[in-house]
Amino acid sequence: MKPILLLLSFCLASCSSVPRGSLPALRSDVLYFEDTPQGRRVAETVIDLFGDRQEVVVLRHKLPPKVEATPLTRVAPEFPDEFRQRHLHGEVVVQFIADENGRVIEAATIRSAHPELARLAVEAVRKWTFRPAMRDGRPIRTVIQNPISFALK
């Protein structure tokens, strides 16, 4: 938990030196969040899940509107017969980062009914592709959270 607070404190301190009203140049490979309770909460989750593999910055500026990523391909997770026989079912919530090219570059489980289902859900999400999210006409990385249901049939 300590690295999260240090990283957020550093980002907030370094970003607060930018004059109010002027937005620093935004890089497409960085995840930016506004300094709001929700923005900080999502930033902390990203840091918890993906650690030093993704740069995160919390800005004390209003960010330009973002056009969300649009799914192009979604691969359904495998659901082995063995799991059905064991009556494993339920929902898995996966949080992932879609990069500026629309590829899933990081994926992790937020909540899962069973660890075995979590692994299958993450494997499937890593194969998904997207039309990238856009900000100011430029493709950007974005954080997406998606529930995946495993039902017995």
Labels describing this entry:
33% strand, disordered N terminus, three-stranded antiparallel β-sheet, alpha+beta, 153 residues, elongated, 2 domains, TolA/TonB C-terminal domain, single chain, 29% helix
Q: Any overview of this molecule?
A:
The chain is an alpha+beta fold and 153 residues long. It has two domains: 2-59, no CATH class; 66-150, TonB (TolA/TonB C-terminal domain), CATH 3.30.2420.10. Helix content is 29%, strand content 33%. It contains four helices and ten strands, in the order H-E-H-E-E-E-H-E-E-H-E-E-E-E. It has helices spanning 2-16, 37-50, 81-85, 115-125; strands at 31-34, 56-59, 66-67, 70-73, 90-98, 104-112, 129-131, 133-135, 138-140, 142-150. The strands form four sheets. A three-stranded antiparallel beta sheet has the order 3-8-9, with no helix packed on it. The chain is elongated and about 60 Å long. Residues 1-20 have low confidence and may be disordered.
